[in-house]
Amino acid sequence: MSKDLRNGGIDRLTVEDILAPGFSTPWDAPTIPPFPFSFRNVEVLSLAWRTTEAAVARLLPPPLEATSDVAVAHIYRMNDTEWTGPYGESNVSVGCRLPGTGIAGSYSPYLFLSSDVGVAHGREVHGQPKKLGEPRIEHRGDLVVGTVSRNGIDVITGTMAYKQRRDSLDSLSRHFDFAENINLKAVDHIDGRPAIRQLTARRLADVAVHECWSGTSTVELRPNAQAPVHRLPVVDMLDSFHWRGDFTLVEGRIIHDYLGETG
Asked: Which of 23, 24, 128, 263 has the fewest CB atoms below 10 angstroms from its CB?
């Protein structure tokens, strides 16, 4: 490259620029951040509930298999994110594994963000099914309230008692490894032929937890055809965690290629 387009260089676009890893459009004001990029002072409300085995199985793309009947909704207040700035995010996930590989983690059927950059990056790079929404965390007296809104409807409302019991994320990880995120990436050619059909995985790096609390909690789901989180119905509330920390997104990997049938 004659100049680093991501660092403010202004020059005419070359084929070498287009073929370089991490290229994003528009080339003179790219949308997609290059790896790695970090999230600092993130506030998270993680809500775990028991749903049904059938509900989990329905949302998993083959050959993934369910590892539990637990669903987890993370509601994030991203206070300081490189490239993206402050925004809200929510990741609804279930436990899964890829048979014959030893790979296990969390699969994300639903994600909602208030950031257009975050939506674009998640869909273009990871293959995450991100949509615009309004995830929020509020402190109302002795209650932590997390909401995820889409189309003016609060599709997730979670509540938790404010900082009653000190805990650690090891307690959350017992449900499934939430730091290993698996996604279905699907991209077509312009003529409609499948271009990419992959299962991708990425792992959070440099995770530093500054504080973590658990306590009494609730989850309420409301139907919405454009945000059908209600397809993971709450059978039994398990636990919740209110935590704050830092982490970094690094490059992920392809764990299954449907077009090449490789794993």
From this structure: 263
pTM: 0.92
Domain coverage including residue 141: 32-180+201-250
Total structural domains within the chain: 2
**Residue 120 DSSP symbol:** H
- Give the pLDDT confidence of 40-87 residue by residue, as tens digits: 999 999 999 999 999 999 999 999 999 999 999 999 999 999 999 999
130 labelled catalytic: yes
Residue 227 to residue 213: CA distance in whole angstroms: 28
Please tell me whether the peptide bond between 63 and the residue prior to it is cis, using omega within 30 degrees of 0.
Answer: yes
pLDDT at 12: 85
- Indicate whether 63 and 9 sit together in one domain: no
Examine residue 255 and state whether it is found in any structural domain, yes or no: no
User: CA–CA separation, 76 vs 242, rounded Å?
Assistant: 10
Report the length, in residues, of the chain: 263
- State which amino acid sits at residue 186: A
215 has pLDDT over 70: yes
Catalytic residue among 3, 130, 163, 185: 130
For residue 168, give both structure tokens: 């650690």
Rounded to whole angstroms, how far apart are CA atoms 262 and 129?
Answer: 23
* Angstrom distance (rounded) from CA 146 to CA 243: 13
Cα separation of 212 and 60, whole Å? 30
Distance between CA atoms of residues 97 and 206, nearest Å: 23
| Coil/strand/helix, residue 231 | helix
Q: Evaluate whether 48 touches 240 at the Cβ level (below 8 Å).
A: yes
d(Cα 3, Cα 6) in Å, to the nearest integer? 9
Does residue 152 have a pLDDT over 70?
A: yes
